[in-house]
């Protein structure tokens, strides 16, 4: 009796009597993928909170004399020195209202905007602009199945009123929408490897024929058409505020339609090169979260390698909240933020070392994975690590620590550069100019030129 | 203290120069700007109340304000802008000062204004959250499936997961909804033909695609799914869709299944839409919308037949009908949702999720305890919901709780056997009300010690809705770490060290005096007479001068606090509407409650303008669209 529509349906699209039209998204070109030609440029932003322990991270020597192995918090990157650029001395935006040093810095990393705790007399939950990976995805990533992959290693369900009158959204999110209807709204993060896998490889179903899949998608598309009509009828009757919610709905429906269409044009299943989703091992979170976090990195690499996704953000954990992951499992009991306020630098170094080992694992995987142009994946990728504040004792966005990995931007790697208070957002702009948006002239609140001295 | 004193003196000096009534005692007519005053009321409660009290009566020394000194706007605004709040005068700028002054000039009440002027505009429409989705489909399809368990997590704003602003709808969410719609309709259409719920919607034979019958079914199911009647324009596309699929597939049931999927993927199902075209002024919300407001408030689910009937009869704005419905809804078993959703978030039980007691300091802690503590608090709250003779004040002071054997052993309560929770008398045990619960005591502690500051903040902000000022930038907000070579100090001693810092002292006096009262309970909620071998001292004096010696006495003092009831209504209102209602308006509602049981209080809230009216927002384009990137 149970009818499950993907199965045992006669050819739904085959007959000429079919009255339901598929929405052809004609603007979409088929996936750009040179079989022997160029691989696309990828970008991944990697955030961890509470800055760094400066003594254990700031380089002894600048320029190419920079030696990662000389400091505890760069030592794990020593094998990738030639793929690495350490940047300090940039000033980022932060908070416009008191108490939001962590929240403001978190938002500013990828948006280039400072933030306020309130807007219109209500708790502000919206950034003033989009985050960079969303902006890239919106402008350059639409032909891939998942234009932006937004990951977090610490589930963000502590929301609402966080300390000091700030919304928790700003403490827990660095990704903000670039779609016109939902500009600046939080883009939800994914934390569960299984759900990430399902998102990336839904339709990767060796047991279903392509006919079954396209029939199922045809039903989906026609139901979506139907409910979109409901939404359109509703729209003129709604208040200004309610229409914003409906815009989210339309945006979501369009994204599903786009994905179905990308799949229809062969963006699913026909994975390039050596990309093989069946090999991945999905490790859930455990007492020692290391293997779980490394699974997220594996998924990031796989998403790039299969060209399902080109722009990513990875949120390691929040800054500023005294509730958070406890580091007893590496003999540094306590919560990162709380410890960062103390003089217990030994413990802090243990924590930051653990964090950077996760980042180093991601870089290692990128450097040992072959892209479909035959080069290493890291040659076609730019990974950017930074934080919300400069360090735990000094809650400012001055002299922000940053590290770049990979060659997609064409920056001169294998060195360390110290700037003198230049605008952090100029680095956002420089990266975007180099990985596909050369025409972009400004970013965030103040950056009007790309950061100089990177080549 | 010096700083505060200086500023109070300045305040008084400047006050003397302010606008005085003229010699005849006639004050020049002052035209009040009510919307400004309303915003000022909120700012007042956030920034001024702690020292100056509700109406300038003063809660600290020199905190009283003599309003006879102010009758003109300008000098008062200047004074506030330049000197207040005394902690950090930059925290209240010109626009803030203007609003606060307006509220003060309105006589510290916006009670004289119309609802349109003082009730904040309704927030964006609320999407069903996960809990509501599961409850709603349970009632809609009579199903055991709980598909929302797989949905992306819902965000919380203003403390509750009902805020339209942060209940996002995106592709991930919609994909999860698609899956849920398939599962639910599979389940529904596989029910036997005689099944009651199936017969409720499939009211005629549509096997041959009879279009009258199809439309009838769409209208019938649509009424329940969209929680309001559908008009012909809304039915037609679904009927056409049925026809197309029926022709292509020659399978009426399959076609109807897709129609049902569409109806529950529609925004009309997933959002609580309240559209009536009146975007000009505050007005009573429509009948079906009112039915949903009531059922989602108390049941977290769709209206039942009786509510639908009353809506159809147009009775759901009549006070006596509303009052009776509140009582009826609360006596239904479905009212457990009010405890599990409102109660749990009001008492911040999600705080337990991130509790992280250190195994070194608390070797006896087991993660399973968190679930038991949660259950204790839920049962306790439910007792207040299901009985109508316990007041909200007694949430703080009731000498009973609910424990099973494990939790009883943990709390050192003798004589409880078995896994079942039973009600226990706690008189004389030192534990009282919610403050005796492991949930409160553990979730307000950090991993290796108690945090009297977090406990004090919890009480002030959650139960009394009193915002505490922000710490100044770049101050150390954690206690100095323990020096292993020095004599051990109690948490209270370490806290007092911290309070010697003039940056911290003023605010922390108010916060810490409350938190100190719970020091007889350690960071995982067990009773302790001493800490590091030194006796615990939990005596303190509240900022208003009332003294106590232990948690029971403190609970007694707090349970009579005048802020408690207004704050509770404010919390209920935020939960119900998904956006802040304002302490001023909820305090006014509170004055109408006779015996503040939960039911009486919620009934009074339901009868108030806050719940019954729809308040359109201003269509300000500048207000929420951030600058567009190039």
Overview features:
heterodimer; A: 455 residues; alpha/beta; 7-stranded mixed sheet; two-stranded antiparallel ribbon; 31% helix; 12% strand; B: 630 residues; mainly alpha; two-stranded antiparallel sheet; 29 helices; 4% strand; globular; disordered N terminus; disordered C terminus
What can you see in these coordinates?
The complex is a heterodimer of chains A (455) and B (630). The radius of gyration of chain A is 23 Å and the shape is globular. The model of chain A is unreliable at 1-36 (pLDDT under 50). In chain A, 31% of the residues lie in helices and 12% in strands. Chain A contains ten helices and 13 strands. By secondary structure, chain A is α/β, with parallel strands linked by helices. Chain A has a seven-stranded mixed β-sheet with strand order 5-8-1-11-12-2-13, with helices on both faces. In chain A, helix 5 packs antiparallel against helix 6 (240-267). Chain B is mostly helical and 630 residues long. Helix content of chain B is 50%, strand content 4%. The longest helix of chain B has 19 residues, at 34-52. Chains A and B meet through strand 4, helix 5, helix 6 and strand 10 of A and helix 2, helix 7, helix 10 and helix 11 of B.
How do the strands of the widest beta sheet of chain A line up side by side?
5-8-1-11-12-2-13
Helix content bin of chain A: 25-40%
Q: Specify Rg of chain B, calculated over alpha carbons.
A: 28 Å
Q: How many E-type strands of chain B?
A: 10
Task: Return the average pLDDT of chain A rounded to an integer.
Answer: 84
What structural class results from the helix and strand content of chain A?
Answer: alpha/beta
Number of helices of chain B: 29
Please give the count of helices of chain A: 10
Globally, the shape of chain A reads globular
Strand residue content of chain B = under 5%
């Amino acid at each position: 009796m149970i009818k499950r529509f993907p199965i045992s349906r006669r050819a739904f699209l085959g007959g000429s009597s079919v009255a339901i039209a598929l929405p052809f998204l004609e603007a979409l070109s088929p996936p750009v993928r040179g079989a022997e030609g160029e691989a696309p440029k990828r970008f991944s932003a990697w955030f961890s909170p509470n800055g760094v322990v400066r003594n254990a991270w700031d380089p002894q020597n600048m320029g190419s004399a920079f030696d990662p192995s000389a400091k505890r918090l760069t030592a794990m990157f020593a094998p990738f020195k030639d793929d690495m650029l350490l940047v300090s001395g940039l000033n980022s935006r932060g908070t416009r209202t008191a108490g939001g040093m962590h929240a403001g810095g978190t938002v500013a990393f990828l948006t280039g905007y400072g933030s306020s705790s309130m807007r219109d007399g209500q708790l502000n939950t919206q950034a003033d602009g989009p985050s960079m990976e969303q902006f890239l995805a919106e402008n350059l990533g639409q032909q891939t199945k998942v234009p932006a992959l937004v990951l977090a290693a610490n589930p963000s369900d502590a929301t609402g009123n966080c300390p000091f009158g700030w919304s928790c959204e700003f403490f827990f999110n660095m990704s903000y929408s670039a779609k016109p209807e939902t500009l600046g709204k939080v883009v939800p993060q994914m934390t569960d490897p299984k759900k990430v896998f399902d998102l990336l490889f839904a339709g990767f179903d060796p047991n279903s024929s392509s006919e079954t899949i396209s029939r199922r998608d045809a039903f989906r598309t026609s139901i979506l058409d139907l409910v979109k009509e409901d939404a359109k009828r509703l729209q003129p009757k709604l208040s200004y505020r309610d229409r914003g919610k409906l815009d989210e709905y339309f945006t979501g429906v369009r994204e599903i339609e786009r994905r179905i269409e990308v799949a229809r044009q062969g963006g699913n299943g026909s994975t390039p090169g050596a990309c093989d989703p069946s090999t991945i091992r999905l490790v859930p979170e455990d007492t020692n979260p290391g293997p779980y976090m490394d699974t997220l990195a594996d998924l990031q690499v796989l998403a790039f390698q299969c060209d399902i996704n080109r722009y990513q953000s990875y949120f390691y954990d929040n800054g500023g909240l005294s509730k958070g992951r406890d580091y007893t499992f590496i003999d540094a009991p306590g919560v990162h933020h709380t410890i960062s306020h103390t003089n217990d630098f030994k413990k802090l170094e243990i924590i930051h070392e653990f964090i950077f080992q996760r980042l180093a694992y991601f870089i290692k995987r990128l450097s040992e994975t072959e892209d479909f142009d035959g080069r290493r994946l890291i040659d076609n990728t730019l990974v950017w690590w930074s934080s919300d504040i400069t360090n735990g004792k000094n809650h400012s966005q001055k002299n922000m620590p940053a590290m770049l990995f990979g060659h997609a931007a064409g920056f001169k790697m294998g060195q360390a550069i110290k700037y003198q208070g230049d605008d952090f957002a100029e680095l956002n702009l420089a990266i975007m100019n180099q990985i596909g948006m050369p025409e972009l002239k400004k970013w965030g609140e103040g950056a009007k030129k790309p950061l100089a001295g990177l080549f | 203290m010096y700083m505060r004193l200086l500023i109070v003196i300045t305040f008084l000096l400047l006050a003397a120069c302010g606008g005085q009534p003229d010699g005849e005692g006639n004050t020049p007519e002052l035209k009040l700007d009510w919307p400004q005053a309303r915003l000022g009321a909120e700012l007042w409660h956030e920034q001024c109340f702690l020292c100056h009290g509700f109406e300038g009566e003063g809660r600290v020394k020199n905190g009283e304000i003599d309003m006879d000194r102010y009758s003109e706007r300008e000098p008062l605004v200047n004074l506030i802008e330049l000197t207040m709040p005394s902690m950090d005068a930059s925290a209240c700028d010109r626009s803030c000062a203007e609003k606060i002054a307006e509220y003060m000039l309105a006589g510290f009440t916006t009670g004289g204004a119309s609802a349109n002027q003082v009730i904040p505009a309704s927030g964006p429409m609320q999407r069903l959250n996960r809990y509501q989705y599961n409850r709603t489909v349970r009632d809609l399809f009579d199903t055991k499936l709980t598909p929302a368990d797989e949905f992306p997590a819902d965000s919380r704003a203003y403390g509750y997961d009902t805020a339209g602003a942060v209940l996002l709808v995106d592709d991930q969410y919609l994909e999860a909804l698609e899956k849920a719609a398939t599962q639910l309709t599979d389940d529904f259409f596989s029910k036997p033909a005689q099944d009651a719920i199936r017969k409720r919607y499939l009211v005629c034979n549509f096997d041959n695609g009879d279009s009258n019958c199809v439309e009838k079914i769409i209208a019938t199911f649509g009424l329940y799914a969209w929680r309001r009647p559908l008009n012909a324009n809304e039915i037609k596309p679904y009927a056409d869709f049925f026809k197309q699929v029926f022709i292509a597939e020659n399978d009426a049931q399959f076609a109807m299944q897709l129609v049902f999927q569409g109806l529950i993927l529609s925004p009309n199902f997933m959002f609580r839409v309240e559209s009536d075209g009146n975007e000009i002024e505050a007005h009573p919300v429509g009948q079906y919308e009112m039915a949903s407001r009531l059922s989602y408030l108390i049941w977290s689910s769709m209206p039942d037949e009786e509510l639908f009937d009353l809506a159809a009869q147009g009775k759901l704005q009549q006070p006596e009908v509303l009052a009776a419905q509140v009582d009826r809804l609360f006596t239904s078993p479905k009212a457990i949702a009010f405890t599990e959703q409102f109660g749990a978030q009001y008492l911040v039980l999600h705080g337990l999720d991130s509790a992280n007691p250190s195994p070194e300091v608390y070797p006896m802690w087991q993660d399973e305890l968190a679930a038991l503590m949660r259950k204790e608090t839920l049962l306790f709250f439910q007792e207040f919901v299901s009985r109508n003779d316990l007041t909200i004040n007694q949430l703080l002071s009731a000498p009973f709780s609910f424990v099973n054997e494990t939790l009883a052993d943990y709390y050192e309560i003798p004589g409880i056997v078995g896994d079942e929770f039973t009600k226990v008398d706690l008189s004389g045990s030192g534990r009282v009300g919610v403050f005796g619960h492991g949930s409160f005591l553990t979730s307000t502690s950090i991993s290796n010690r108690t945090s009297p500051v977090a406990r004090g903040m919890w009480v002030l902000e959650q139960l009394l809705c009193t915002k505490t000022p922000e710490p100044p930038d770049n101050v150390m907000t954690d206690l100095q770490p323990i020096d292993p070579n020095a004599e051990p100090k109690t948490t209270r001693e370490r806290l007092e060290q911290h309070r010697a810092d003039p940056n911290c002292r003023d605010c922390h006096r108010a916060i810490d005096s409350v938190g100190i009262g719970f020091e007889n309970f350690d960071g995982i909620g067990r009773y302790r007479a001493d800490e590091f071998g030194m006796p615990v001292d939990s005596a303190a004096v509240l900022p208003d001068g009332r003294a106590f010696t232990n948690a029971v006495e403190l609970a007694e003092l707090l349970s009579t606090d005048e802020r408690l009831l207004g704050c509770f209504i404010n919390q209920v209102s935020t939960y119900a509407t998904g956006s802040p209602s304002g302490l001023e308006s909820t305090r006014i509602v509170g004055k109408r409650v006779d015996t503040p049981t939960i039911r009486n209080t919620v009934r009074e809230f339901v009868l108030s303008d806050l719940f019954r009216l729809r308040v359109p927002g201003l269509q300000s384009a500048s207000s929420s669209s951030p600058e567009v990137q190039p």
